[in-house]
Amino acid sequence: MKIEHVFFDLDHTLWDFERNSALTFQKILPEAGVNLAFESFAKSYTPINAKYWKLYREEKVSKENLRYSRLKETFDALGYDVEDSVINHLSEEYIFQLPNFNHLFDGTIELLDYLDKKYELHIITNGFEEVQSLKMQRSGINGYFKEVITSESVGVKKPNPKVFKYAMSKASAAPENSMMIGDNLEADIQGAKDCGMNVIHYNSENLNDIPQNVTSVNHLLEIKQYI
């Protein structure tokens, strides 16, 4: 195995999505007059958001539907009455404010410094194009990556093989010389494996059911052992 190109997912892999998302909601909910304990909101919102992202990957909901419905369903689950105008405001304000919080996972910069000396680095993300570039710029990591591939630019989402093939084509990379690193076993790991890429799973959510044939790490710096 001669790795030449390393492709990263962004959210939940390098950029600490859950932490940054929580900080965003802690700011925008009270500003919009939503009087809910954040812990209660987050407990309902987190699985609902994950459900809608899965539907989005499967092309079953639009970006606009995802942004509105994840909030509407959360408020409904909590029995909290919110007007549609407030939900629409929150959905827009969330996207606007999210890139202002830019915590990275521990070890991100050290790992990127290490890999940057040896490989060409790239991003493949299902996140919304208009915010992903801001996240990378404001967290100071955009300079590490040669190619940044968003699912919106391809027209389909991971794990669709078109995303990975398009990314490798843009990077002039062969599957056997490419490594995909990501947190999502379906979208990142299986999707890349199906295209012949090497994979490393970053277990940012402390999952217990990792397939035996998948290399998985619990801290980003463990990746240095494998490439």
From TrEMBL:
Keywords linked to the UniProt accession: Hydrolase
Domain of life: Bacteria
Gene3D superfamilies registered for this protein in UniProt: HAD superfamily/HAD-like, Putative phosphatase, domain 2
Keyword match Hydrolase: yes
GO MF terms, alphabetically ordered: 5'-nucleotidase activity
Annotated EC: 3.1.3.5
Keyword Metal-binding: no
Chain segments annotated as transmembrane: none
Xref: InterPro entries: HAD-like_sf (IPR036412), HAD-SF_hydro_IA (IPR006439), HAD-SF_hydro_IA_YjjG/PynA (IPR011951), HAD_2 (IPR041492), HAD_sf (IPR023214), PGP-like_dom2 (IPR023198), Pyrimidine_5'-ntase_YjjG (IPR052550)
PANTHER family: PTHR47478, PYRIMIDINE 5'-NUCLEOTIDASE YJJG
Name by which UniProt lists this protein: YjjG family noncanonical pyrimidine nucleotidase
Organism: Pseudotenacibaculum haliotis
